[in-house]
Design a protein that fits this description.
Number of domains: 2
Largest sheet: none
CATH architecture of the largest domain: Alpha Horseshoe
Helix content: over 70%
Shape: elongated
Distance between the termini: 96 Å
CATH class of the largest domain: Mainly Alpha
Number of strands: 0
Radius of gyration: 30 Å
Order of helices and strands: HHHHHHHHH
CATH topology of the largest domain: Serine Threonine Protein Phosphatase 5, Tetratricopeptide repeat
Structural class: mainly alpha
Length: 211
């Protein structure tokens, strides 16, 4: 821009520039402020949403502690509806499954755990739900379903030992003591939980080959 000699010329130049570019400047500022305000609004919404989900889950836990399976199921369904995009939806399904098992309804537990796997926001959480599902299926005597669940989800290093123990249980239930023995040893080597129980199962296996 050419150098301006007087204040009047400077003011006049500013007026002309503003007349040409002022609308764009205002629009840009408005957009910028809108983006900032929009981001803050979104953050506030997410924070409030998470707080409401946390409170709803606490209420669900209290209902679960009371053992009211029907109310737990209704509250879990509402949590999934209202907070389906949060981890609390999966936790609600896990809670519903636990209460269903406590009340002897293994079919409802299987359904809840299956939904929990689908709603898990993280692979590790999905694996945890799958581990519980396989245990319930095994307790039901549905060995094929348990084996399929393990095959689909049992590759996680964090739960490898626990899945190996379940493979041992399935093999033992099928009468394959050699496969069960190998699975239990893998479970122990992988630091599975309930190691003492696995050792007892290993000791109880027949000494020979598959029976």
């Amino acid at each position: 821009m050419a150098e301006l000699d007087t204040d009047e010329e400077k003011i006049e130049a500013i007026k002309k520039w503003w007349k040409t570019n002022g609308v764009a400047v205002v629009a840009g500022v408005a957009i910028g402020l809108g983006a900032v305000l929009g981001w803050r609004t979104w953050v506030d919404y997410r924070t409030n949403h998470a707080q409401r989900a946390s409170l709803a889950f606490e209420q669900l836990q209290m209902t679960a502690d009371a053992g009211d399976a029907a109310s737990v199921q209704k509250q879990a369904e509402l949590m999934v509806k209202d907070f389906g995009g949060t981890p609390y939806a999966m936790f609600a399904e896990l809670t519903a499954a636990r209460v269903a098992l406590d009340n002897g309804d293994s079919a409802a537990a299987v359904a809840a755990l299956t939904r929990a796997i689908d709603r898990a926001p993280d692979p590790a959480l999905a694996t945890l739900a799958a581990l519980r599902l396989a245990r319930v299926q095994l307790d039901q005597g549905d060995l094929d379903a348990a084996a399929k669940t393990i095959e689909r989800h049992g590759t996680s290093g964090a739960f490898a030992g626990d899945f190996a123990a379940l493979r041992g249980d399935i093999a033992a239930a099928r009468g394959d003591s050699d496969e069960a023995r190998a699975a239990y040893r893998t479970a122990l080597d992988s630091n599975a939980g309930n190691a003492r129980l696995i050792e007892l199962k290993l000791q109880d296996l027949p000494a020979g080959g598959a029976s």
